[in-house]
Amino acid sequence: MAISGAADIAAAVRGGELDPVRPVEQALSRIEAADGVVGAFRTVRSAAALREAVALRERADLANLPLAGVPVAVKDVVGVAGETVEWGSRAGQRTPASTDHEVVARLRAAGAVVVGLTRVPELCIWPMSDTPEGIARNPRQPSYVAGGSSGGSAAAVAAGMVPLAHGTDGAGSVRLPSAMCGVVGIKPGRGVVAESGEQHWFGMSSHGSIAATVADAALLLGVLAERDDLLAPGEPGRLRVAVSTQVPLTHAPVPRPLREAATRAAARLGSAGHRVVQATPDYGTATLGLLTRWFAGPAEQAEEFDASLLQRRTRTHVAIGNVVRRAGLVRERTASEWTRRAEVFFADHDVLVTPSLAARPPKAVRWHERSCLANAVPSVQVAGFAGLWNLAGFPAMSVPVGGFDDGLPIGVQLVAAPGGEATLLAVAAQLEQATRTR
Known about the structure:
Blueprint: H1 6-14, H2 21-38, E1 41-44, H3 46-56, E2 71-75, H4 102-109, E3 113-118, E4 130-131, E5 134-135, E6 137-138, E7 141-145, H5 151-158, E8 164-169, H6 175-181, E9 184-187, E10 206-211, H7 214-225, E11 240-243, H8 256-271, E12 275-278, H9 286-301, H10 312-326, H11 332-348, E13 351-355, H12 372-382, H13 388-392, E14 396-403, E15 409-415, H14 421-436
Parallel strand pairs: 2-3, 2-8, 11-12, 11-13
Antiparallel strand pairs: 1-3, 4-5, 6-7, 8-10, 9-10, 9-14, 13-15, 14-15
């Protein structure tokens, strides 16, 4: 049995039709064959993953595990016992984790096998996932980046190396690479994937799931959130759908293929029976509050790293972030005012459809060798639609809907009010089906 959907693999393993070692062997074989070009993985756990797959055979609860035998990739920001957590940096500690992070423990409890940790940009600041050790490239168009900061995770799924990958999203870091690589990525609302300790980036960061299909993205999200109601998409009912292609704050021009993809997706939802209107949230100047956190969050985290070993772009970003922190520019009022305006918008609309990206993805080059400004410009350009939903703590996801003329994938973003994860998954499944039949 070749690598296929996570749900199919798990069902075959649960039913005794598939040895859990087999899908792990196939995943490792695909990683060996493709990752020299794609660069999705920071480290591959070949021997450990095979040992864990063998041990899975003996689990008494194997027949009940939602991810039985499914090979998964984990973003290099959470502890996997026996592996270092590097955050894309040479400046951190090199002591292997003694225990699994909570989300990794949930994956293992559900029967998943962690085959490796995926590449991220240093401190997860940028939507380009490259390090001195390699560049995470878009498997559909290797001359372009895979995105970031969960770029390695999205690339691993898009290349068919694994059916599922964990990611985190602090300002679009699941949705941006998912859109660039043509896969599904969902960022749940604040607190849906609970974890102990402080959340990163002033509570903007959430654990999320990346998969080739909406059904598999739901399966992973349900496991991460420990919620059975999110394990599979349901039926959306008839919803009030808004579509907007206006970039917050700057109103920068959006490439026509991205605009048309959003309006085309909305039209397909209209054909499915939803009420569709053009409407844009009152973004105000909330983007400025997002930018202060984008600088200050990594600066706060960098206190645990050796500043002299940070990349040049990161040192500048952190220095700006420290100025922002000292000046008291990270204000809760900014987030609360924007959240209030977003709640007003979603009182009249159930789902918002926008482009996932506000610009074409950057080319795949060694961005870590360039200046902070050189990195910041394409970062801000591409991420215009994504980050404000982290600031508000609302769920959002990216669904592939086509591509540019050169084959580079295009995704659309779906947003809902807090508690709307099931609604997003249901609408995304409907849109996925409509897109496939066109």
